[in-house]
Specification:
mainly alpha
C-alpha cells in the first residue's frame, strides 16, 4: 500500500508542473482553441494513469528481476554467459523503448523514408547492446570507468568528422532516447546486481554497477554515426 501511495505522489510531482505551466500559457499567452486544451487535459489524464501503472510495474517486476538476474549470473562463473546475457537484454529492452520509437518515426517522416525507422531502431539497439556487453566486461575485470568513457567519446569525436552533418544530431539524440523508461531500470538493476555479487558487501567497488547507462549510451551514438557513413 505504501508503494502505491509513493508511486501516486511521484506521478503527481512529475505531471502536475507541466500541466500547470501549459494551462498558465493558455490563459496568459497562447490562447489555443478550447478543443485543443481539452485534448491536452484528456491526454494528461491517460498519461498519468499509464505512468502510474508503469512505475508500479517497474518497482514490482523490472527492478527486482533485473537485479536477481545480475546476482545469479556471476554464480555460473561463465564470463561469456554474463556478457552474452547483457548483449541480449540490451537488444530486447532497447527495441521495446518507446522514446526510441518516437524518434525513429519522426526521422523516418522527415527523411521521407530515406532513413527507415526499422533500420534506425535495429542500429541503435545493436549499438546499445554491444556497449552493455562492454560494461559487463568492465565490471567483470574491474576496468576503471573513466578509461572506457574517454576511449568511447574519443571515438565519437573522431568519427563525427567523417559523418554527414545530418547524422551528427540524430546520433546524439539516439544516445539520449535510450536512457528511457524501459532500458534504464532493467539495465541499471542488472549492472548493480552483477557488481554486488562480484564485490564484497563492505567494499566501495560495489558501486561499480553504476555508470553503466552512461557507458551504454555511447553505443547508439557510434552506431548511428556508422550508419551515416554507410548511407
Amino acid at each position: 500500500m505504501n508503494n502505491v501511495k509513493n508511486t501516486f505522489k511521484e506521478v503527481v510531482a512529475a505531471i502536475m508542473p507541466v500541466t500547470i505551466v501549459v494551462i498558465f500559457l493558455q490563459i496568459a499567452i497562447i490562447r489555443l482553441p478550447m478543443e485543443a486544451l481539452l485534448q491536452f487535459l484528456i491526454g494528461v489524464f491517460f498519461v498519468s494513469i499509464g505512468f502510474f501503472l508503469f512505475l508500479l510495474g517497474v518497482n514490482a517486476g523490472l527492478l527486482p528481476i533485473g537485479e536477481l538476474i545480475g546476482k545469479r549470473l556471476p554464480r555460473t562463473k561463465n564470463a561469456w554467459l554474463i556478457i552474452g546475457t547483457g548483449l541480449l537484454l540490451g537488444i530486447v529492452v532497447t527495441i521495446a523503448e518507446p522514446d526510441l520509437r518516437v524518434l525513429a518515426t519522426q526521422i523516418d517522416n522527415v527523411s521521407e523514408g530515406a532513413i527507415s525507422a526499422t533500420i534506425l531502431i535495429l542500429s541503435v539497439s545493436l549499438g546499445l547492446a554491444l556497449f552493455v556487453a562492454l560494461a559487463m566486461i568492465r565490471t567483470l575485470f574491474n576496468i576503471p570507468l573513466h578509461f572506457v568513457l574517454i576511449a568511447g567519446y574519443a571515438a565519437v569525436f573522431l568519427l563525427s568528422f567523417f559523418v554527414p552533418d545530418a547524422f551528427v544530431p540524430i546520433s546524439f539524440d539516439s544516445g539520449g532516447v535510450t536512457t528511457g523508461p524501459m532500458a534504464v531500470p532493467f539495465i541499471l538493476a542488472l549492472g548493480v546486481g552483477v557488481a554486488s555479487s562480484l564485490r564484497p558487501k563492505d567494499s566501495k567497488d560495489e558501486t561499480e554497477g553504476f555508470g553503466l547507462i552512461g557507458l551504454a549510451s555511447i553505443g547508439p551514438i557510434l552506431a548511428v554515426m556508422i550508419l551515416g557513413v554507410i548511407f
